[in-house]
Design a protein that fits this description.
128 residues, mainly alpha, globular
């Protein structure tokens, strides 16, 4: 009796699927984790500084589109629309070398971008 062959890639492994890690709950993707951390931090900043950041908007992109790769930006601001654009991959890559908790690096990037939008230093938003 012939068995039905399993679908495998060229190296003989089965289909790939996400492997849960201790940093990400099962079923929670990196994009979802990143988006939740950005949303929570932006909501915190809006509630803490309603006059200055009440209209804060945010957007997530994978990487910035730029010609010179020697300095990879982690965020970009648009003061006209009170928008911060966060680049997920550069932020996550810088987090892996600095801290064991990726959420801290994401929160730090959001605070830094919001401070840049207002023309302030990041600690000015956290000091009060």
């Amino acid at each position: 009796m012939a068995s039905i062959p399993q679908k495998r890639d060229r190296h003989g492994r089965g289909m790939r699927r996400p492997v849960p890690s201790k940093l990400f709950r099962h079923g929670l993707s990196r994009q979802t984790f990143f988006q939740d951390a950005v949303a929570d931090t932006a909501d915190y900043l809006r509630s803490r500084f309603p006059e200055e950041l009440g209209a804060l908007n945010w957007k997530i992109e994978e990487v910035p589109l730029q010609e010179r790769p020697e300095s990879l930006n982690r965020w970009h601001t648009k003061p006209q629309t009170m928008t911060i654009i966060l680049y997920r991959i550069p932020i996550e890559r810088s987090a892996s070398s600095r801290t064991s908790d990726p959420r801290i690096q994401i929160e730090q990037a959001v605070v830094s971008a919001a401070a840049s939008l207002l023309g302030k230093e990041p600690w000015d938003l956290l000091d009060q």
